[in-house]
């Protein structure tokens, strides 16, 4: 699952068992939240300290997503619910554009590129 939020961009997948590294079977009860920018995971942890605050951001510079958190799937479900409940805008890209210091100008600019690519699907 890819999710673009006002806190940043995340890829969520089932974690692997144990330390979550390659070669281990999938753990259907844990989620690995991956990010390309550590500040995005930090913002998510700050927003949801009760669900994510104790999780450590793991760094793997050689990985496709350099930063990740491992959490229980039930916590991820609650985070998603809370993210949906906090939507208070009628234009997502504008919401992010009005707060670039929180997630970064590069994220804001990337959202426009993603919008353009996905717009081609509609045509």
Quick recap of the structure?
The protein has one domain.
Topology at a glance:
Blueprint: E1 2-5, E2 8-16, E3 26-35, H1 38-47, H2 49-52, E4 58-59, E5 67-72, H3 73-85, H4 92-97, H5 100-103, H6 105-122
Antiparallel strand pairs: 1-2, 2-3, 3-5, 4-5
What does this structure look like?
The chain is α+β, with helices and mostly antiparallel strands and 123 residues long. The protein has one domain. Helix content is 45%, strand content 25%. Strands 1-2-3-5-4 form a 5-stranded antiparallel beta sheet. The protein is globular and about 40 Å long.
Number of helices: 6
Low-confidence stretches: none
Structural class: alpha+beta
The average pLDDT score comes to 92
Number of strands: 5
Jot down its keywords.
alpha+beta; about 120 residues; 5 strands
């Amino acid at each position: 699952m890819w999710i673009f939020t006002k806190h940043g961009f995340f890829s969520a997948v089932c974690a692997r068992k144990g330390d979550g590294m390659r070669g281990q079977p999938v753990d259907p009860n844990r989620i690995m939240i991956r990010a390309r920018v550590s500040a995005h995971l930090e913002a998510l942890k700050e927003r949801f300290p009760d669900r994510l605050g104790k999780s450590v951001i793991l760094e793997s510079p050689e990985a496709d997503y350099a930063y990740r958190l491992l959490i229980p799937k039930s916590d991820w479900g609650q985070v998603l619910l809370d993210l949906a409940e906090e939507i208070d805008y009628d234009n997502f890209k504008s919401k992010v554009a009005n707060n670039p210091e929180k997630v970064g100008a590069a994220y804001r600019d990337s959202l426009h590129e993603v919008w353009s690519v996905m717009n081609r699907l509609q045509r």
